[in-house]
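Reminder to self: tokens first, then the designed residues, so the page reads top to bottom the way the pipeline ran.
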């Protein structure tokens, strides 16, 4: 029996993990399988000693970091937990110890730094000025993941409501504040109608995750920010702004999609007024659209 293929099908079809998670687990389990195959050991005959040997191999020969080794061991343990319950096989990974991992503090921007990044889009020609401004505002006000942003279709937006498909193909709704709606309308005026997806590359194709990451990195550089930042830092920034706006943690979890909650449960636990409240927590922070004395709005 091919236990590994069965396990991958379980992850994809029953646990409904994201494509990235599935890809990561496949890599980790496949690498472990290759290691034990060299020892002429069947996957069901692995013992705790073999896993300890693999831990040493990852550390001394592959020189993986503690974090990488921990991730790979998590995949191995999850695999054996599954097949031991499903097929009554001994679980050699139940007592494995994980390497210590230092806690990462998420990086985020101040309001002033966020404004610098978005203002840097003014140097670009259309349609990139409007497109990139909308990308940045969506990250900074809603905390979308990069994959979620790239997968937005024009039809996913109805008024100020955005339908987001998150991890595990779970759907949630996000309320867009007036700054984002204004940026959206400007972008739609200059956007080429060549795709169902909202964000279009310079080659008139659906923008990839890497393309959006490049956009963010471009404006971080143009804004003159030197600390290590990424597209994911803008997601942390949105959460920070909401917290400063005194939004409760439960609501923020719903907005960011941290919980695996079905569409109907969104309405059960967080009503639309709460979602709109969370969206408006950032309203006014990004007021560069307004005409100011001595300045013209772009």
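Designed residues (298 positions):
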């Amino acid at each position: 029996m091919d236990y590994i293929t069965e396990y991958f099908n379980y992850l994809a079809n029953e646990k409904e993990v994201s494509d990235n998670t599935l890809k990561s687990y496949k890599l980790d389990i496949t690498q472990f399988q290759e290691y034990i195959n060299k020892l002429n050991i069947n996957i069901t005959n692995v013992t705790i000693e073999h896993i300890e040997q693999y831990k040493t191999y990852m550390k001394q020969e592959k020189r993986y970091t503690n974090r990488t080794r921990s991730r790979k061991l998590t995949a191995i343990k999850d695999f054996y937990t599954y097949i031991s319950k499903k097929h009554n096989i001994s679980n050699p990974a139940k007592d494995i110890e994980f390497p210590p991992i230092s806690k990462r503090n998420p990086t985020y921007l101040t309001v002033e730094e966020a404004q610098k990044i978005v203002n840097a889009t003014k140097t670009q020609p259309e349609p990139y000025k409007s497109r990139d401004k909308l990308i940045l505002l969506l990250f900074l006000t809603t905390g979308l993941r990069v994959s979620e942003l790239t997968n937005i279709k024009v039809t996913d937006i109805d008024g100020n409501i955005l339908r987001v498909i998150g991890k595990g193909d779970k759907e949630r709704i996000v309320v867009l504040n007036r700054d984002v709606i204004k940026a959206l309308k400007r972008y739609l005026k200059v956007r080429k109608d060549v795709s169902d997806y909202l964000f279009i590359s310079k080659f008139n194709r659906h923008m990839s995750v890497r393309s959006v990451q490049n956009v963010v990195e471009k404006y971080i550089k143009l804004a003159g920010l030197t600390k290590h930042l990424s597209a994911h830092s803008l997601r942390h920034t949105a959460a920070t702004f909401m917290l400063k706006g005194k939004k409760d943690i439960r609501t923020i979890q719903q907005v960011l999609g941290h919980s695996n909650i079905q569409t109907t449960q969104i309405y059960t636990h967080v009503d639309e007024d709460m979602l709109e409240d969370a969206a408006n927590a950032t309203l006014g922070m990004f007021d560069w659209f307004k005409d100011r004395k001595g300045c013209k709005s772009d």
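Residues 260-272 have pLDDT under 50 and may be disordered.
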